[in-house]
UniProtKB/TrEMBL annotation:
Phylogenetic classification of the source organism: Bacteria, Deltaproteobacteria, Candidatus Acidulodesulfobacterales, Candidatus Acididesulfobacter
This protein's name: Pyruvate kinase
Residue ranges crossing the lipid bilayer per the database entry: none
Catalytic activity: pyruvate + ATP = phosphoenolpyruvate + ADP + H(+)
Keyword line: ATP-binding, Glycolysis, Kinase, Magnesium, Metal-binding, Nucleotide-binding, Pyruvate, Transferase
Residue ranges of domain Pyruvate kinase C-terminal in the record: 367-486
InterPro entries: Pyr_Knase, Pyrv/PenolPyrv_kinase-like_dom, Pyrv_kinase-like_dom_sf, Pyrv_Knase-like_insert_dom_sf, Pyrv_Knase_brl, Pyrv_Knase_C, Pyrv_Knase_C_sf, Pyrv_Knase_insert_dom_sf
EC number: 2.7.1.40
Source organism of this protein record: Acididesulfobacter guangdongensis
Pathway it works in: Carbohydrate degradation; glycolysis; pyruvate from D-glyceraldehyde 3-phosphate: step 5/5
UniProt key word Signal: no
One Pfam family, short name: PK
Similarity-based family: Belongs to the pyruvate kinase family.
């Protein structure tokens, strides 16, 4: 029985802002819709949220916070040609960039940046070296990698600790908008330390205590890589944001950093997204490059829970085709010997790490028992009865080969699990009640089994077993303490 385990995140933008295209993205495998708040306005985002909610209860909505992204300002010409070895001034008081000045929006420019520091513009397409401090607001730079300067491009200062806070005023506005408009997840940009995530969580808890949001840390700075375990502990999920990470740190180390970040997330049982340039050639082409296919396959074999499309679906010519190719590559990888072997090894390794405490040891033992049973009963799925999503997330981290069907009380929990590898959720409102009977849940699973199987699973026969795990009394969060196996062919 095959069920796609690796999830797909698609960024919505000008190329995917209409109902027809979003519907095709969902049909092509999109599990999470990403809204990039670095671009766009409230009216556009409200429209997109409305379309997604109208089309699907399954698709989670992720708001990617802008963060303290430093950018060049607007310029009078459409393009400015910068030539190698020429001098140019970097200024935070100029209103526009021109042939002699690059205007940027960073007020701490001369406080943080010193002579000898490097400046990368537009993901490193242009590189400068600071040769002198001219004033409180201007730096003299030499162009060491020439290129064409375009308006409002990102600026990075590798290996420089910046004074700007990781969570900005614009981020808090975006958090407020998202919390009040039915989104499920927030990705925090340019995280440097655990306190950055604590600040976001405190804001949401203080202002929206009745709601639960999934908070993802984007790892894109050297400081974040150094603090990965502490950041992952406080986060709900992790994103390997390879774009800025490849500028902030040596690009030749990106593949190794990806493996390390994914391993850290796996060890701490937190879902992880691998992002940036996964199918970038498909912005303009109908098929991916060999290197891109290899990249996606290796990310899956590294242990990622999800893969993300950015420009491919936001501004590309073939958004739904890119998502369809992604799903095809995932399916081919997951049906391979290498993937299945890694899953067996992952269960043996990951299940022994990290989170065995007095508070959750019974839950972990029950989850391990369910997963080990699934390796013996191959024609099965694991049904995780969970009010909060914890049990299903825990089982996902143990990397079973069979599908995980999370029986959840509402759509909010359902969509919180949208990134977890191998999890498909169904809503049973009754499990929110403390006195719900296990017999009712078993009947619910049986009644929904064929519908689930036909919709999500690929199988040649109708036999099957459900490995059910949950807690008694049902409805108590964190009380997972039983495993029960039922034959779905029997009444």
């Amino acid at each position: 029985m095959y069920f796609r385990k690796t999830k797909i995140v698609c960024t919505l933008g000008p190329a995917s802002s209409d109902k027809k295209t979003i519907k095709r993205l969902i049909e092509s495998g999109m599990n999470v819709a990403r809204l990039n708040f670095s671009h766009g306005d409230d009216d556009t985002f409200k429209k997109l949220i409305g379309i997604i909610r109208q089309l699907s209860d399954d698709v989670a909505i992720l708001v990617d916070l802008p963060g303290p992204k430093i950018r060049t300002k607007k310029q009078l010409q459409d393009k400015i040609i910068l030539k190698k070895n020429e001098d140019i001034i970097l200024s935070n008081i100029k209103e526009f960039s021109d042939e002699k000045n690059i205007a940027i929006d960073y007020k701490y420019l001369t406080k943080d940046i010193q002579k000898g520091n490097l400046v990368f513009i537009d993901d490193g397409k242009i590189k400068l070296k600071v040769t002198d401090v001219l004033s409180e607001n201007e730096l003299l730079c030499k162009i060491i990698k020439e290129g064409v300067l375009k308006t409002e491009k990102g600026v990075n200062f590798p290996n420089v600790k910046l004074s700007v806070p990781s969570v900005t005023g614009n981020d808090f506005k975006s958090l407020k908008f998202g919390a009040e408009n039915d989104v499920d997840m927030f990705a925090v940009s340019f995280v440097r330390k655990p306190d950055d995530i604590a600040e976001v969580k405190d804001f949401l808890e203080k202002n929206y205590s009745g709601k639960k949001f999934f908070i993802i840390s984007k790892i894109e700075k050297a400081e974040a890589v150094e603090n990965i375990y502490k950041i992952a502990e406080i986060s709900d999920g992790i994103m390997v944001a390879r774009g800025d990470l490849g500028v902030e740190t040596p690009i030749e180390t990106i593949a190794l950093k990806q493996k390390m970040i994914i391993a850290a997330a796996n060890n701490l049982k937190k879902p992880v997204i691998t992002a940036t340039q996964m199918l970038e050639s498909m912005v303009a082409n109908e098929s991916p490059t060999r290197a891109e296919v290899t990249d996606i396959t290796n990310a899956i074999l590294d242990g990622t829970d999800a893969v993300m499309l950015s420009e491919e679906t936001a501004i590309g010519q073939y958004p739904d085709l890119a998502a369809a190719y992604m799903e095809k590559i995932i399916e081919t990888t997951e049906e391979s010997y290498f993937f299945k072997n890694l899953r067996h090894n992952a269960y043996k390794t990951v299940s022994e790490t990290g989170i065995n405490t007095a508070d959750n040891i019974i839950s972990i033992a029950s989850a391990k028992m369910a997963v080990s049973s699934s390796f013996i009963i191959e024609d099965s799925f694991i049904a995780a009865i969970t009010r909060t999503g914890y049990t299903a997330s825990l089982i996902s981290s143990l990397r079973p080969l069979v599908p995980i069907v999370a029986v959840v009380p509402d759509l909010a929990v359902k969509r919180r699990l949208a990134l977890n590898s191998g999890v498909f959720s169904i809503v049973m409102e009754e499990i929110a009640e403390k006195n719900v009977k296990i017999e009712n849940i078993i009947k619910f699973i049986k009644d929904n089994y064929k519908k689930i199987r036909n919709k999500k699973f690929k199988s040649d026969n109708n036999s099957g077993y459900a490995i059910i795990t949950g807690g008694l009394p049902l409805g108590e969060p964190g009380s997972t303490d039983f495993v029960r196996i039922i034959d779905l062919r029997k009444d």
